[in-house]
């Protein structure tokens, strides 16, 4: 079993620790940005439309007046397909992509922010920070308690001390590492406080999203998958619409001037179905 000195008694220790602190600081920054994204209007809009369309589809049943749904069921709700033959390939997310307006630029921005935090867990960051803080604390204790006349210790640090222009006296070793130790201790404590703050945000989001006791990483993963599903469906609908528009524009038209311009504008707009047709589509998709 290696001792703390065998593992860490080299000048590179400070550089390695700083790199680890920097990585964990970046991770907490990404998670906090993801937490902000989880309250974005685009997600709230999607959840509201899922509830609204669900109540419409289920009208006449006990589920027609739902006031919410479990957040964990969001992907399943979006993936729900119609039971009739002519709607077997139509999902709720496809209906939303076709009939509901979404800010696609904001949508892609939220997805990007969530994806950058998708592989990060608070438990891992917290455990790593505690271990780092423990290592720094053990190093400081041994620096304070180790006999300065220990030949092997002074020999190990002699190149480092001489490189920094320090004479090897009783205080040199501790003085050499004192700035790093104090900085590491302060930074480690600060990052742990940030993690605790994110725990509080996690609790708040659980209530906000009806996510019960879901972990923050689970909420991020489910939201990323759901929004990616919506984005994909919107892009597929846009391709279909573009192809349809291209075909319609190849048909010769005996129009001119303002009349031709008006028809061209109308060709780019989605066909508006009557209420009864839309209702039938929703019922078939139930």
Automatic annotation (TrEMBL):
Gene3D superfamilies: Formin, FH2 domain. Pfam families: FH2. PROSITE patterns: FH2. Residues 1-256 form the FH2 domain. It comes from the Eukaryota. PANTHER family: FORMIN 3, ISOFORM B, INVERTED FORMIN-2. This is FH2 domain-containing protein. It comes from Strongylus vulgaris.
């Amino acid at each position: 079993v290696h001792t703390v000195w065998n593992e860490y008694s080299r000048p590179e220790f400070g550089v390695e620790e700083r790199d680890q602190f920097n990585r964990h600081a970046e991770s907490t920054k990404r998670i906090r940005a993801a937490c902000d994204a989880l309250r974005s209007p685009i997600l709230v809009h999607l959840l509201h439309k899922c509830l609204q369309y669900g109540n419409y589809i289920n009208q006449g049943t006990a589920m027609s007046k739902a006031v919410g749904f479990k957040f964990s069921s969001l992907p399943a709700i979006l993936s729900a397909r119609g039971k009739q033959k002519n709607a077997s390939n139509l999902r709720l997310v496809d209906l939303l992509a076709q009939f509901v307006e979404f800010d696609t630029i904001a949508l892609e921005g939220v997805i990007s922010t969530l994806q950058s935090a998708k592989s990060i867990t608070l438990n891992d960051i917290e455990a790593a920070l505690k271990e780092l803080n423990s290592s720094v604390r053990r190093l400081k204790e041994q620096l304070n308690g180790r006999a300065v006349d220990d030949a092997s210790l002074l020999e190990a640090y002699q190149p480092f001390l001489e490189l920094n222009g320090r004479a090897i006296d009783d205080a040199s070793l501790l003085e050499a590492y004192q700035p790093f130790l104090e900085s590491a201790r302060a930074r480690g404590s600060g990052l742990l406080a940030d993690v605790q703050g994110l725990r509080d945000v996690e609790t708040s989001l659980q209530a906000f999203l009806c996510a019960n006791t879901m972990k923050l990483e689970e909420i991020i993963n489910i939201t990323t998958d759901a929004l990616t599903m919506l984005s994909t469906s919107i892009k597929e609908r846009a391709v279909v619409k573009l192809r349809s528009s291209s075909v319609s524009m190849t048909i010769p038209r005996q129009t001119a001037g303002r009349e031709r311009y008006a028809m061209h504008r109308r060709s780019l707009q989605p066909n508006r179905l009557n209420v009864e047709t839309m209702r039938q589509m929703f019922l078939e998709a139930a």
